# Entry
Amino acid sequence: MAKWFQKTIIKDDERGLLFRKGSYVKLLEPGTYRHRLLGEESVVLLPLAKRFAVPGRELASFLHDERLVKELAIVQVQDNEYALHYEDGRFVELLPPGPYAYWHSLKQHTFKHVDVRSPEVGADINRTVLAKLPNYVHVHEVASHEAGVLLFNNSIQRQLSPGKYHFWKGPVSVQVKTIDLRQQQLDMTGQEMMTEDKVTLRLNFVCQYRISEPLTALQIKSFEEQLYILLQLVLREYVGTLKLDELLRMKQEIGAFVLGRLNEESASFGVQFKSAGLKDIILPGDVKDILNTVLLAEKRAQATLITRREETASTRSLLNTAKLMDENGTLYRLKELEFLEKICEKIGTISLTGGGNLLEQLNSLLGARSGSAPK
# Structure
């Protein structure tokens, strides 16, 4: 008799599926079973700890058995979805589109569906779970000095503040463009311009700005190039209305004028201009030579004027001294002695001839005023 039957033992952590002539018949609970070989019966054993799956069979072919369905936690994941699978509240796996079934005799199975047509991962999804799904999630970061702009299928959605953002990989392409919000500098070097009197010169100019409206700035093609052209046009507007001499005299005012004109256009660029200033004015060689000649002539004229003023002052001083000496004999005598002292400093020896002592001879040398010798 034994050769006509086959014995099957189903353990407590297993379930059996009975097939007859290749067709599913029923679910078998734990226990011992005998089935006839001549009836072409077979039993497939499935562990409760693993997902319900029979090789070569679709899940739908078993769903007519209500008893089996009660033993299973069944989930259908649509084409536009992912499902997060949890066992007893702990994340286990992500399920792509398709049907799935799990035995709920040993563990409680729950599922969280996410629609990948809205690719931004919601706040209800634990971020530690996402770290386990690198093939299904991509991450974008916005630094503390940046602003991010979120685009779905190349369409702007909203502005992102600094932080880390997660998005599901799916039918919607996701881009995050970052814009630096720190103060930036725009340099214009060696820009040729013509003054009102047709003098061509070169300017080195600089301005500082920061982006205040990232969404506006992002919609401008070649943003920095257009800012450069705006600065160039404003400078031409200023330089073209002044003659060279006026420009050189008013060069300190150019920064304030340019900054004011730039800020009139700042809203259309989404920026705020902070400062602007002229670094250098580079003149052509021939113009520079002419200006140097003019400057040299001016300095020489000033030097001549100063010399003449000094000579006039000196002559006036001598005249005043002469008047005082003419009116005061003692002052005249002191002046003579002063000059005598200076003369004595220049000579090595003094030779005296004739009679008389040294004092008498010096008195004789100096002479007396008004026909009488000084006493």
